[in-house]
Specification:
By secondary structure, this protein is mainly alpha-helical. It has one domain: MFS general substrate transporter like domains (Growth Hormone, Chain: A, Up-down Bundle). It contains 16 helices and two strands. The longest helix has about 35 residues. It is globular and about 50 Å long.
């Protein structure tokens, strides 16, 4: 088949993971806009609206439904760990990354819209938890293809800024979708408004992710290798890890460290809104307002730290951010009796450092990738991360269970104990990251 008959395919460059020439700004912006377009799932659904709705009294007792949600989220993480090697390697081997990203993005939009059918009654909790778990699976698998496309829009000199732009636009997208929902439905958020907001989220994702599919094309491999199957995909995964260990063990240490702290970072936003409502007494409207402010702070902080990433190196950004997150998480635990003021200070403070650590982690790996291994290593990045993606949710739920036993559920809700589980995962990632060598930076 001739090149003229494949207008949507670009040939694979023979350079390394990151391009040597700057990509046109329109391509960089189109790539970053995918973060903006898919942010409703992270901000509205996972953090500030749907998960809070799903743990409200309409579905059962607070501690009980929170623990159930944590277990459901953890189960989704296990499923991601099983699927990522197969789907991630398949897209890399066939060169159809944008094709897979497109259908995964549209499926995510459909899942968001389907949450409209979760009515405020205990019998609908399972449907809500299944949709939330399925959305997590689809979103994380899509991220494999999205992250791997970073090599099409950044160079060694600006990868920190480009990565930070994507994360920053994601947070600003979270602000925008929340403001649109408030302007359309108001800030009181009765159950019917929450359900209608899910339709808005689905439409937002479908519309704002169009630019990336117009700007970036699939890369045609020299030949399409035969399918490996599930068993073969795992064999290839272990061979890849062994090969990376022989060539650059520092990369394996980083994958281990990032798997831990990225799961902790996800836990901060996954359960932040739940804690705000259940422990600190935020109303539904106050949770949404907090979400708007948190995303403004997180978006600006991530873009700023993206500049520091290129100047100081990603390891410095990661360690400083994790250290601050651990300290503020402990403050939330010990000062939880202080009410909403405590969460506004320390909860908002935590949002400053989540985005920078996530963005710097992505740029860290981009600097480590040797020639010809971009897709493979970003696949490993996703796989190793999701291999422990159940850890923060399960530690959150386990910590609440311990808290109930220690404090007595009748005397006081022990939901605030959940933050200890998230902090423990972040601290473990911090310790392992200390032993990772800083990647070389271009001057």
């Amino acid at each position: 088949m001739t090149a003229q008959s494949q207008p949507d395919v670009d040939p694979i460059p023979q350079a390394g993971a990151l391009a040597s020439d700057r990509a046109p700004r329109r391509k960089v912006f189109a790539w970053a806009l995918w973060d903006w377009g898919t942010q409703p799932f992270n901000t509205v659904i996972t953090t500030f609206v749907f998960s809070v709705y799903l743990t409200s009294s309409a579905f059962g007792e607070t501690d009980e439904v929170t623990i159930k949600l944590a277990w459901a989220t953890g189960s989704a993480g296990l499923l991601i760990a099983l699927l990522a090697p197969v789907l991630g390697q398949g897209a890399d081997r066939t060169g159809r990354r944008m094709f897979h990203l497109r259908w995964q993005t549209w499926l995510l939009a459909a899942i968001c819209a389907a949450m409209y059918f979760v009515a405020p009654a205990p019998e609908y909790f399972i449907l809500g938890a299944v949709l939330l778990g399925a959305g997590n699976v689809v979103a994380e698998i899509a991220n494999v293809n999205y992250y791997a496309a970073l090599d099409q829009v950044s160079t060694p000199k600006n990868v920190g800024r480009v990565s930070g732009l994507g994360w920053g636009l994601g947070y600003l997208g979270g602000i925008s979708i929340l403001l649109v929902i408030i302007a359309t439905l108001g800030s009181d958020f009765p159950a019917d408004d929450v359900r209608f907001a899910m339709l808005i989220c689905g439409a937002w994702t479908a519309v704002f992710t169009i630019p990336i599919f117009l700007a970036l094309k699939d890369r045609r491999p020299d030949h399409v290798p035969p399918s490996l199957g599930i068993v073969g995909s795992y064999r290839q995964l272990f061979r890849s890890i062994a090969g990376v260990w022989r060539q650059n063990p520092n990369t394996v240490f980083f994958l281990l460290a990032s798997a831990l702290f990225r799961d902790g970072l996800a836990g901060v936003f996954t359960f932040g809104g739940v804690l705000a409502a259940g422990t600190f007494g935020f109303s539904f409207g106050e949770v949404v307002i907090f979400g708007v402010v948190a995303n403004v702070v997180a978006g600006l902080a991530t873009m700023l730290f993206g500049l520091l990433d290129d100047r100081l190196g990603p390891k410095t950004v990661i360690l400083f951010s994790l250290g601050m997150l651990v300290a503020m998480g402990m403050a939330i635990f010990f000062l939880h009796d202080g009410g909403t003021t405590v969460f506004w200070i320390f909860g908002l403070g935590m949002t400053v450092f989540v985005g920078p650590a996530q963005s710097a982690s992505r740029s860290f790996l981009a600097r480590l990738i040797p020639e010809g291994m971009s897709g493979e290593l970003f696949g490993l990045y996703a796989t190793t991360g999701r291999a422990v993606s159940f850890l923060a949710p399960l530690m959150f739920g386990l910590s609440i269970t311990v808290g109930v036993a220690v404090t007595g559920a009748a005397a006081e809700s022990a939901q605030y104990w959940g933050i200890l589980g998230v902090v423990l995962v972040l601290a473990a990632g911090f310790v392992v990251a200390l032993f990772v060598k800083e990647p070389a930076r271009s001057r």
